[in-house]
Design brief:
This protein is of the alpha/beta class. It contains 14 helices and 13 strands. The strands form two sheets. A seven-stranded parallel β-sheet has the order 3-2-1-4-5-6-7, sandwiched between helices. Strands 10-9-8-11-12-13 form a six-stranded parallel β-sheet, with helices on both faces.
């Protein structure tokens, strides 16, 4: 199978794309891939490290605050179509897959215009502008949340779940001791996204002193952008702060609970691994979609919610104590998470792709 895949901007789009690639490789070992991404975002560094051929286009997202800047955005969108047409024509794919981010807009649009089969996947409960635009050009649409099916034509929309969940289950377990933590002591993982959130990190750095003498340990992942800032601070003995963890999902298998943003891929991993959590949605994302993602879990008693505006004093510490130190609450939350798990999401996506290619 020859596959063009496009996704970009954040890990929430890139890692589901990689999960789909890995599943296709397992099902069709002779497959060949071409990844089309932006010239200046995370994918330009991540994708080549995985040995996947990468082509970039210069394109920008729409500016909500200054509409005049969107003249430039439209100009680059139209300009990129020429490069995309060349890449697709040379590669001759069986299918073109879009996994989110504004880079997918011109790629899927051009592939459709050229007569190629197209599949897009939406990770969030509320679709982004790119996937709403592309819904008329995609042959099949996969969604992670049942609640998001209402945004797309029902005849071509499939509830697949997030492909990262299947990868999370198969990830190799990481021992807590390898990160300098005690094996028998309960552990809370704090993670605020692949790049980290400066406002949240500043708040959490101050908060970490409140965990001194608690009967559990903390691992605080700030994101790579905060690596230098970490060196300026000291933390209690039961708190370990790191910029990143290799194989995060493998480490999640050994934690007792998480405090996290509510990105779609992170939630899929929390569900798959049944990790009790307190979710702090980012209020700075389009259409407040992280809050809506989180509420899909909260309404089913599969997570607790704290909004960023509520983070005052020791409220977060008290919420952690109330959940982590109550075995009945932990048990009930894990039970609710188990009921949400879709065990074969990446497999479902590949099956839909096989149907399109066969058709």
């Amino acid at each position: 199978m020859r596959v063009v895949i496009t996704a970009g901007g954040t890990g929430g789009h890139i890692y589901p794309a990689l999960a789909i690639i890995n599943k296709i490789k397992k099902s069709h070992p002779d497959s060949e891939f071409l990844y089309i991404g932006t010239h200046n975002r995370m994918e330009k560094d991540i994708i080549p490290k995985h040995g996947i051929p990468f082509k970039s286009i210069e394109i920008y997202g729409f500016n909500r605050k200054n509409p005049f800047k969107n003249i430039k955005t439209v100009r680059y969108f139209l300009k990129s179509l020429k490069d995309i047409k060349k890449y697709i024509k040379e590669f001759k794919p069986d299918i073109v897959i879009g996994v989110g981010g504004y880079v997918t807009g011109p790629v899927i649009y051009m592939a459709h215009k050229m007569g190629y089969k197209t599949f897009i996947h939406e990770q969030n409960s509320v679709p982004g502008k790119a996937n709403r635009f592309l819904s008329k050009y995609a042959d099949t649409i996969g969604v992670s949340f049942k609640s998001s099916t209402k945004y797309f034509p029902s005849y071509k929309t499939v509830f697949t779940g997030n492909p990262c969940s299947e990868e999370a289950v198969s990830s190799k377990e990481v021992d807590k001791q390898k990160l300098g933590l005690e094996k028998q002591k309960k552990c809370v993982l704090f993670v605020m996204g692949s790049l980290g959130s400066s406002k949240m990190n500043d708040f959490l750095i101050k908060t970490m002193t409140l965990f001194k003498n608690k009967p559990y340990q903390i691992i605080f992942v700030t994101g790579k952008n905060y690596e230098e800032e970490l060196k300026k601070h000291t933390f209690p003995n039961n708190v370990k702060a790191v910029p990143y963890i290799d194989n995060m999902t493998g480490f999640m298998k050994n934690v007792d609970m998480m405090v996290s943003r509510a990105g779609a891929s992170t939630l899929s991993e929390i569900i798959a691994l049944q990790v009790p959590s307190i979710l702090i949605p980012s209020p700075y994302v389009p259409e407040n979609h992280q809050y809506k993602n989180a509420m899909d879990l909260v309404n089913k008693k599969a997570a607790l919610l704290l909004e960023e505006s509520e983070l005052k004093g020791d409220i977060l510490v008290r919420k952690i104590d109330e959940l982590l130190l109550d075995s009945n609450k932990i048990h009930e939350m894990k039970k609710a998470l188990k009921g949400l798990h879709i065990p074969n999401s990446a497999t479902k996506i590949v099956e839909e792709i096989e149907i399109l290619v066969g058709r």
